[in-house]
Amino acid sequence: MIVAPGQGSQSPGFLSPWLDLPGFGDLLERLSRTAGLDLLAHGTVSDEETIKDTAVAQPLLVAAGLATLRTLLADPAQTARSVGALAGHSVGEITAAAAAGVLTDDEAMTFVRERGSGMAQAAAATPTGMSAVLGGDADEVLAVLDRHGLTPANMNGAGQVVAAGTLEQLAALQADPPARARVIPLKVAGAFHTHHMQPAVDRLAAVAEAAVIRCWPASSPRSPARCAGT
């Protein structure tokens, strides 16, 4: 099984070691052309603040996942033969879809380019963010988030909930956390997976409508409904 990570997993220089592998840099440059970004630079020399930008981070992470996969499993058909399942966390779902052949690499990069740009614009409208809440009673954690007007954006497993909302709401949570819980601010640029991202929905829906969906491991295009039924 391969699981592709979501936004926040990038770090300055994280792709530098991969450039030692033959062909990796070429793959990253090709994906950069579709994204309209210098992802080679962003994965090697750009600073933390630059790659935190949603419009950069999302294409960077999808390109990083695809380039590493194509380098390790050079034959795309090999993925279908040797990988039992593919999944992704948030934007990593796009990586997984391309890795499975549901989208081509270029389609995935076009989709994530529009996703990242749209979400960056939505995030800029109101200063928002996310914080991980570790520990505490699950019901009490949700009650405290509700009291502060925050959204439980991610349920990352037992004992970890990601709260999302305005910076003022997150600051209030930090000052008044649930009992026996720690609140850790996350290095993200907005309140993802919440109503704050609504302005990006229509823009992304138009891109999704034009996409050709393919069923893994079959290569022929099919409708999403038929894919779901296979």
In short:
The protein is of the alpha+beta class and 230 residues long. The chain folds into 2 domains: 2-123 and 200-228, Malonyl-Coenzyme A Acyl Carrier Protein, domain 2; 127-190, Alpha-Beta Plaits, CATH 3.30.70.250. The protein has 11 helices and 6 strands.
SSE layout and pairing:
Layout: E1 2-4, H1 24-35, H2 39-42, H3 48-52, H4 54-72, H5 76-82, E2 86-88, H6 92-99, H7 105-125, E3 128-135, H8 138-147, E4 151-157, E5 160-166, H9 167-175, E6 181-185, H10 201-210, H11 224-228
Parallel strand pairs: 1-2
Antiparallel strand pairs: 3-5, 3-6, 4-5
Task: Considering the chains and any ligands shown, give keywords for the structure.
230 residues, alpha+beta, Malonyl-Coenzyme A Acyl Carrier Protein, domain 2, Alpha-Beta Plaits, four-stranded antiparallel sheet, 11 helices, 6 strands
Provide an overview of this structure:
By secondary structure, the protein is α+β, with helices and mostly antiparallel strands. It has two domains: 2-123 and 200-228, Malonyl-Coenzyme A Acyl Carrier Protein, domain 2, CATH 3.40.366.10; 127-190, Alpha-Beta Plaits (2-Layer Sandwich). It has helices at 24-35, 39-42, 48-52, 54-72, 76-82, 92-99, 105-125, 138-147, 167-175, 201-210, 224-228; strands spanning 2-4, 86-88, 128-135, 151-157, 160-166, 181-185. The strands form two sheets. A four-stranded antiparallel β-sheet has the order 4-5-3-6. The protein has a two-stranded parallel ribbon with strand order 1-2. Strand 4 and strand 5 form a beta hairpin. Helix 4 packs parallel to helix 6 (92-99) and helix 4 runs antiparallel to helix 7. The longest helix has 21 residues, at 105-125. It is globular, with a radius of gyration of 19 Å. Mean pLDDT is 88; it is low at 219-226.
